[in-house]
Amino acid sequence: MLARAQALISESALRGNLTALARRAQTRLLLPVKANAYGHDLETVARLAAQHPDVWGFGVAVPREAAALAALKLGKPVLLLTPPTPEEVGPLADLGVRLPVASLAEADALPAYARAHLKVDTGMNRLGARPEEAVQVGLRLAERGLLEGAYTHFATADEPDLSFSREQFARFQGVLAALPPVLAHAANGGGILSFGPLPGLSLARPGLAAYGFAPAHLRQVAPLTPVMTLRARVTHVHPVHPGESVSYGGLWRAAHETTVATVGIGYADGYPRGATGQAQVLVRGERRPVLGRICMDQCMVDVTGLDVQVGDWVEVWGRDELTVTEVAQWGGTVEYEVLTGLGTRVERVAEH
After folding, report:
1. pLDDT in tens, 275-285
2. Which positions bind substrate (predicted)?
3. 126 annotated ligand binder
4. Catalytic residue among 34, 38, 119, 151
5. pTM attached to this predicted model
6. Which fold, 11-218?
7. What's the start-to-end Cα distance of the chain, in Å?
8. I need a labelling partner for 215 at 20 to 30 A (CA). Which of 108, 200, 240, 254 fits?
């Protein structure tokens, strides 16, 4: 069956982003591939990234992602970034998954063959041990021979004011100073781009930046290219006469004879319904408006004057002319939400 929509994943763009970020951080990378690799497909991205010399390993958010990565046998470490349940600790350790630890009870519950990364809360107030507790937990893990790494997370490193991020890093450095040498990591994409190399860190964790996106004020810091191009097929072409409306609610009405293409992508696939009334797509290289309300499975596009046939591809977002940043703005959200919301009906295809 022909795919109605495809996400083309560029190996060269991903490779270039990883190289640029590793150079900027002057460390190896722990690449987050959580949320289906930010919508890009976990297996596709992991297989491509595992070949990159600057990638130390992968970060995931839930045990199922860790198990899926372990099953690929890529020869790279996998770190679970959020706490497992007590019942999940043993099976994950059996798979070689690195486990986050933030309490003495968690440290004592680990099997003797586990490898742990101490999670330090330096101000995000989401997960982890506060610095004074983290030192105790880290020393307990070290006594047991289980401490491989330590990490924290910047809350505001993608913003122009870096004062709070500097406070966080100082707290983290205080913890590291009280521990034996470990694989230390703190810098997310914003941290890498804002700070460059940070003393004492041996890994960096570029999330959205690895997939080609940076805050506006940091876009010139490193050469990043969006990894995904999303395209969808034309499924129907038809005329709409003056005075007729298109889609639910009759939000758009034709002022003149219009040729309309129905395109096989909608909000069930991750194309934001909130972009209704603003969205555009690329048809044969031209920007054309999406007409009326975006539907669950499809949307309608003005293709008047263009030679468009059923089966043709329409670019929904790409790397240059129309990126997911613009689509997210139309939908009143951010790139993270649009990319991670890309549905399973969208076929992922690796491009060389």
Report:
1. 999 999 999 99
2. 126, 296
3. yes
4. 34
5. 0.95
6. TIM Barrel (3.20.20)
7. 23
8. 200
